[in-house]
């Protein structure tokens, strides 16, 4: 179980100075209903979008999606109170990715930064099958269609129902994803197009045109119940975890804290074979009409290192843009120095600033 704090006590800027908290946080649970068709074979790389009906089966179920809601406290302007960010973690992570504990006088919390620097609220969720959200017994139920559909119900809830006493429904929801979390947001955009409940998408650590990415080279992937029998011995063997996290950081060990890697390993969670196999689904064109931004780290060992892909930002933008022909606007940013887990290295404030800028732009 991930640790939950009722509030973020301190924030730290890039110069190491500590200021009083500007963010108050509370745990929430949102019930969602999904009724989707998924491939009978969870390794179907296009998640059933190109499958014959006989190759699909129905998942009709109600799940609970757990999250931590953070809002600016009374010391910060509430001018952006009608906007909320929905933060979606990557594979083998939980919503804690967006607000890990303060480490070595640095604050790696995207939620706290958003409160302090943009006065924006955020909801960091645990995806379906992960953390404190519902975990189906059958791991093959957790595929892109189910996880993305469950995720898309959250902004609809946020726009129609008060999340907590004193927190009215929001007018705009901006989705911010990390890695496979970006993939889930991308899949929702493919399926729902102009009917998407998201008013803008910020997709990090995810490139759809990275055709030479060998995702199977990820080290340490193993069945979760074998990796940690005390914690996961009852899980379907198709739930897995990544015990070696080094590829998620820059290759230069001086650019991140070794203690953060230890925390990362201590709080690792699970993914499923379906979510892993269906990552290439994001190479399909989407009819989404809202604004889109992609943010990737120059030292991302999965997408950038060892290639020239991230050096020519204009060419990268043009390539990625082809898959979003209906988007209101589209931009790619390469954050210099950042790794795949851009929130967890010493350059985190750069991406955090970029997120706030895009949320402001998309909310106007």
For the structure shown, list the relevant keywords.
single chain, 364 residues, alpha/beta, Rossmann fold, 3-stranded antiparallel β-sheet, 9 helices, 13 strands, disordered N terminus, AB_hydrolase_1, AB_hydrolase_fold
Could you describe the 3D structure shown?
The protein is of the alpha/beta class and 364 residues long. The chain has one domain: Alpha/Beta hydrolase fold, catalytic domain (Rossmann fold), CATH 3.40.50.1820. Helices cover 23% and strands 23% of the residues. The protein contains nine helices and 13 strands. The chain has helices spanning 110-118, 144-160, 180-192, 224-227, 229-232, 258-266, 273-277, 313-321, 349-363, and strands at 10-12, 18-20, 23-39, 56-72, 83-88, 121-125, 172-178, 200-204, 221-223, 239-242, 271-272, 292-297, 330-335. The protein has an eight-stranded mixed sheet with strand order 3-4-6-5-7-8-12-13, with helices on both faces. A three-stranded antiparallel sheet has the order 9-10-11. A two-stranded antiparallel ribbon has the order 1-2. Helix 1 (110-118) packs across helix 9 (349-363) and helix 2 crosses helix 3 (180-192). The relative contact order is 0.16. Mean pLDDT is 89; it is low at 1-20.
CATH superfamily: Alpha/Beta hydrolase fold, catalytic domain
Q: State the secondary-structure class.
A: alpha/beta
Largest sheet: 8 strands, mixed
Q: What count of structural domains?
A: 1
Outline the low-pLDDT stretches: 1-20
Spatial strand order of the main sheet = 3-4-6-5-7-8-12-13
Fraction in beta strands = 15-25%
Write down the CATH class: Alpha Beta
């Amino acid at each position: 179980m991930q640790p939950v704090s009722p509030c973020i006590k301190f924030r730290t800027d890039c110069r190491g100075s500590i200021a009083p908290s500007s963010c108050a946080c509370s745990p929430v649970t949102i019930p969602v209903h999904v009724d989707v068709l998924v491939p009978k074979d969870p390794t179907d790389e296009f998640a059933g979008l190109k499958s014959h009906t006989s190759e699909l089966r129905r998942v009709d179920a109600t799940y609970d999606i757990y999250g931590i809601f953070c809002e600016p406290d009374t010391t910060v302007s509430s001018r952006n109170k009608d906007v909320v960010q929905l933060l979606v973690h990557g594979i083998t992570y939980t919503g804690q990715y967006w607000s890990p504990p303060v480490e070595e006088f640095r604050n790696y919390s995207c939620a706290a930064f958003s409160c302090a620097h943009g006065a924006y609220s955020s909801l960091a969720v645990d995806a379906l099958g992960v953390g404190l959200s519902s975990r189906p017994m059958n791991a093959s139920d957790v595929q892109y269609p189910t996880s993305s559909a469950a995720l898309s119900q959250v902004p609809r809830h946020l726009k129609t129902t008060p999340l907590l006493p004193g927190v009215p429904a929001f007018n705009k929801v901006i989705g911010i994803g990390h890695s496979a979390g970006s993939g889930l947001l991308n899949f929702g955009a493919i399926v729902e197009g102009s009917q998407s409940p998201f008013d803008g998408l910020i997709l990090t650590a995810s490139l759809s045109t990275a055709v030479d990415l060998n995702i199977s080279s990820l080290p340490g992937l193993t069945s979760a119940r074998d990796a940690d029998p005390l914690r996961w011995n009852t899980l379907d063997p198709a739930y897995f975890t990544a015990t070696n996290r080094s590829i998620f950081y820059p290759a230069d060990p001086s650019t991140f804290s070794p203690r953060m890697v230890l925390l990362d390993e201590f709080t690792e969670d699970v993914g499923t074979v379906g979510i892993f196999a269906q990552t290439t689904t994001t190479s399909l064109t989407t009819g989404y009409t809202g604004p889109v931004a992609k943010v990737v780290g120059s030292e991302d060992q999965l997408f950038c290192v060892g290639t020239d892909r991230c050096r020519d930002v204009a060419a990268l933008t043009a390539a990625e843009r082809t898959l979003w022909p209906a988007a209101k606007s589209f931009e790619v940013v390469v954050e210099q120095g950042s790794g795949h887990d851009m929130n967890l290295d010493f350059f985190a404030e750069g991406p955090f600033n970029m997120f706030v800028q895009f949320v402001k732009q998309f909310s106007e």
